[in-house]
Design a protein that fits this description.
The complex is a heterodimer. Chain A is an alpha/beta fold. Chain A has one domain: 3-Layer(aba) Sandwich (Udp-n-acetylmuramoylalanyl-d-glutamate--2,6- Diaminopimelate Ligase, Chain: A, domain 1). Chain A contains five helices and five strands, in the order αββαβαβαβα. In chain A, helix 2 runs parallel beside helix 3 and helix 3 runs parallel beside helix 4. Chain A starts with a helix and ends with a helix. By secondary structure, chain B is α+β, with helices and mostly antiparallel strands. In chain B, 35% of the residues lie in helices and 28% in strands. A five-stranded antiparallel sheet of chain B has the order 1-2-3-5-4, covered by helices on one side. Chain B is globular, with a radius of gyration of 14 Å. The chains are: A alpha/beta, B alpha+beta. Chains A and B meet through helix 2 and helix 3 of A and helix 1, helix 2 and helix 5 of B.
Chain lengths: 109, 141
C-alpha cells in the first residue's frame, strides 16, 4: 500500500508528501529517537508524538516510508522545510498512537 | 574501485538542530555511488549515533569516512570528557544524558549499542578528560 493510499484510508492530514508513492511495508511506533533508529525498518510507517527536527534525520536514515504524528502533534515550519528537502513524507492525525497502529496493522495484514 | 573515497566532516557541538547532517551527506554520497540500501542504512545509522553522541557529550568533533573496495571505515574523534566505563556505556539503556537531551528523544542509552549492532567491527578508545575515538568498519561482501 502506498503512503498516499494509507493517508486516504486513515484520513491523515498530509503536511508534506514529497514521495507519496512510497510503499508502506510495516509499522513502528516509538518516541525515543535512538531506540527507533535501532529498530525501525526500511519501509515502515513510523508513528510518533515527537516533532523536533531530529525526527527528520531519523526518518531519513532509517529510510522509513512516512512519519505519522499522532494526537495532532504540532510541527515547526523549519521541520516541514527540512522534511520536504530530504524527501520525508510527514502526516498528522488526531488519533493516538495505539489507534493508528491498530488501523495500520489491520490494513497491512 | 581503485582509489578510496575519503569524506571529512567537522561536527558542530553547539548546534543540535543540524546534528545528523554529516550522516545524511554520507547517505547521499553512498547512494550516488550505488551501494545497496542495507549497507547505506547500516553506515548512516552507525554514523548518526556517533554524531549525536559527539554533540550531546563532547561539544562536537571530527568524522572521517573512507569508502574502500572491501569496507567502509568510519573514524569519529572528539576531545570531550571521555567515557569512564566503556563496558557500562556499551550496555543498552545506560545513558548519562541530561533531562534536556532526553526531552528531545535522545538519551535512551542506545547510541553505542546501535553503533555496535550496525557495524561489523567497532573499537572504542577513550581517556578521561582527553576524549574518545571510535572506529567502525562495515564490510562490503
Amino acid at each position: 500500500m502506498t503512503v498516499e493510499a494509507l493517508a486516504k484510508q486513515l484520513s491523515l492530514t498530509a503536511l508534506c508528501l514529497p514521495e507519496a508513492d512510497r510503499t508502506v511495508e510495516g509499522c513502528y511506533c516509538g518516541d525515543l529517537l535512538s531506540w527507533v533508529m535501532g529498530r525501525a525498518k526500511s519501509g515502515d510507517a513510523w508513528v510518533t508524538i515527537m516533532t523536533n527536527i531530529n525526527v527528520v534525520a531519523v526518518a531519513s536514515l532509517t529510510d522509513c516510508a512516512c512519519v505519522i504524528l499522532a494526537e495532532d502533534a504540532q510541527v515547526e515550519p523549519q521541520v516541514l522545510e527540512k522534511a520536504q528537502v530530504q524527501g520525508i513524507n510527514l502526516l498528522v492525525s488526531q488519533k493516538d498512537s495505539f489507534a493508528l497502529c491498530a488501523e495500520i496493522g489491520a490494513l497491512l495484514s | 574501485m581503485n582509489d578510496a573515497v575519503v569524506l571529512h566532516f567537522d561536527v558542530d557541538g553547539e548546534n543540535f538542530t543540524s546534528a545528523g547532517e554529516a550522516s545524511v551527506q554520507v547517505k547521499k554520497t553512498l547512494r550516488q555511488m550505488g551501494f545497496p540500501p542495507e549497507v547505506i542504512r547500516r553506515v548512516s545509522i552507525a554514523m548518526y549515533e556517533g554524531e549525536i553522541n559527539m554533540v550531546i557529550h563532547a561539544g562536537g568533533g571530527k568524522a572521517d569516512v573512507t569508502v574502500d573496495s572491501d569496507k567502509i571505515h568510519i573514524v569519529l574523534a572528539d576531545k570531550g570528557p571521555g567515557i569512564a566505563d566503556i563496558d557500562l556505556a556499551m550496555q543498552e539503556g545506560y545513558s548519562t544524558a541530561k533531562d534536556n537531551i532526553r526531552s528531545l528523544g535522545f538519551g535512551a542509552g542506545m547510541g553505542l549499542p546501535n553503533m555496535k549492532r550496525y557495524s561489523d567491527h567497532m573499537e572504542v578508545e577513550s581517556a578521561l578528560g582527553k576524549g574518545t575515538t571510535i572506529t567502525m568498519d562495515i564490510y562490503l561482501s
